[in-house]
Amino acid sequence: MTLFDPTEARHFCGAFANSRGQSEGEAEVFLRQFGIGRQISEGTSVFDEVRDCLLRDAERLLFLGLSNYRRAFDLLLPSACGWAQVTLYYSGYFAASALLAMFGARTYWRRPYPLAIQVDTGRPGSQVLKVVNTRPMSTYRGSHQRFWDLFYASVSTLVPSIDPPLRIAVTPVSNNPTWLIEERNAVNYESRIWYQAMEDFQVSFRRSNLRSSLPGALSTQFEITEGLLRVSCGFGRTLGLTSDALMNVLPEAARSVRIRSLIYDASSATLGNQARRRGLIL
Q1: Global pTM?
Q2: How far is CA 84 from CA 75, 188, 195, 276, in A?
Q3: Which of 15, 30, 38, 228 lies at a 20 to 30 A Cα distance from 80?
Q4: What is the largest CA-CA distance in the chain?
Q5: How far apart are the two ends of the chain, measured CA to CA in Å?
Q6: Would you kindly state where each structural domain of the chain is located, as residue ranges?
């Protein structure tokens, strides 16, 4: 997929038009009205709606990515470390999706085709988005496999604008673009792998040295997720990402205040002692 460069993306992200109607809804649903070859030019109401939809989607996805990242820390215990990895996977997936949206791209399905909206012309004031069929762009059939394959190919143009220590987050693990989803599927669906992850976690994990004591795939997923969030949030700030997606949550507060209040500062209810034990122990 073709993306804006950072200067073009700054123009795109800073021109939220506050459109109403379908563009306020789910991006996947909204974009299905556009078929292969459709061009959408800046200066039209349709362009405003598509841009607003992508910017709202980016803000929501970043919020969800940060929320899942925070939640993963609560799952760092032997019996739930597999869920920590799955949660971190989705955090990274949301961050990667938000990054694409800020730079003018979004994958979606319009049966029978896997489509994407991408940049056709990036010049500020004359920007054009175009809908393309992604099937020729990737040989992978799974939706998440295809997403990561397209993601890594697309963001390669942004690498020079990313701090060197964070470039690992936008580079395929072991040169395999589907590594993240393969490892998520393994721990999510294969009980023996989950059990092995629990064994490894018990041996290596140390609360006092969290980041360097996580075992195997969990450690790699954690590093990639933190990197993707740092890259995406960093671009969100420098590009001036603006929308009304989070306005109904603490409406009088700044976005940073909402995130700190609802994700980092909020205290979780201690409900573990309310779990039924009688009859639920082998």
Answers
A1: 0.95
A2: 5, 10, 14, 23
A3: 228
A4: 66
A5: 51
A6: 6-252
